[in-house]
Amino acid sequence: xxxxxxxxxxxxxxxxxxxxxxxxxxxxxxxxxxxxxxxxxxxxxxxxxxxxxxxxxxxxxxxxxxxxxxxxxxxxxxxxxxxxxxxxxxxxxxxxxxxxxxxxxxxxxxxxxxxxxxxxxxxxxxxxxxxxxxxxxxxxxxxxxxxxxxxxxxxxxxxxxxxxxxx
Length: 167
Description:
- The chain is mainly α.
- The chain has one domain (2-165).
- It is 80% helix and 0% strand.
C-alpha cells in the first residue's frame, strides 16, 4: 500500500508539471522550476513538460485564426478580435520581411527564448496567422520549446542549487 501511495504522489507531481506547461504564458517556463523545486527526476520532467506544452499546438494552429475570424464581427468581442488579426498580420508581414528564408528559425528563437509574451502558444498563433506550413511550424515550435525548457532547467538548477547551499 505504501508503494501505491508513493506512486500516486509522484504521478500527481508529474500531472502538475504537465498541466502547468499547458497554461498560456506560463508554459514550460513555469513547469521546469516546479519540477526542479520538488526534486523530480530531470529527464522525465522535461519530457512531460514538453508533451504538455506541445499538446495545444495543433488546436491553436488550426482553430485560433478561425475563432478570430468568426469573432471579428461580433458586437462585444469584435474590436478585440479584429485588433488581434490586424496586429498578427502586420507583425507577421514585418517578421517575414526581416527573416526571409529564416522565418522558421525566427519562430524557433521566438518560442525558445523565455521572455514574457513568447512561447508555444504565441508562436503557433503567429505561424497560423502567417499561413506557415503546419508540419514545419510544429517542428520548429517543438525545438523552441526544447530550447526554452533547457534554459529554464539550467536557470532552475542554478537558483535551487544556490538555495540548497545556504541550508
